[in-house]
Amino acid sequence: MGYFSVGLQMAATVYIQADSLTEAQGKLEQILSKSIDARDGRWFSDASFGTPALPEISFATAMEIRGPAQDDTCKTISIDDVEQLMWSSPDASKSKVLPRSSSQFRSKAGSCYWADLEVRTVGIMKFETETEAKAFLSQITEERPPCSLGNGG
Q: What's this model's pTM, rounded to 2 decimal places?
C-alpha cells in the first residue's frame, strides 16, 4: 500500500451572521485567502439559523469535490508526510474573524447570509499503486461526489 496526495478543488458554503449585506461581505473578505483548519470544529456548526449557538461565520459541513486542482498531479508521499499534512502548520494564517464571536449575540439575531466558495484542500489517498490512485481521481472528476466533514474519532 502506498499513500498519495493531490490538491482538490471543492465547493463549500459559508454562512455569515450580520446585520447587513455590507457587514457580511466585510466579514467574508477577512477570511478569503486565509488558511482554515478543517479540524477546528468552531468553523463548522449544526446549530439552527437565528440561534445564538450559530457561529458568526460557519462553513457547511457538506461540500462537493470538484476534482483535482488545476495543474496539480498525484504525488507519492510517505507516512511521515501523511502525518504532517494531517496537522496544520503552526504558522498557518487564520482569519482574525473568529468563528465564534467573543461577544454574545443580541436577543434578536442578525440576518444570516451565505456565499458559495471554491476552496482548495489536500486530499490523501491510500492505494496499492499510483495507477489506482489516478483512476480514483478520474472518477471524482466525473462523479463530483459530496464530502462531509465530521469528527473522525
A: 0.68
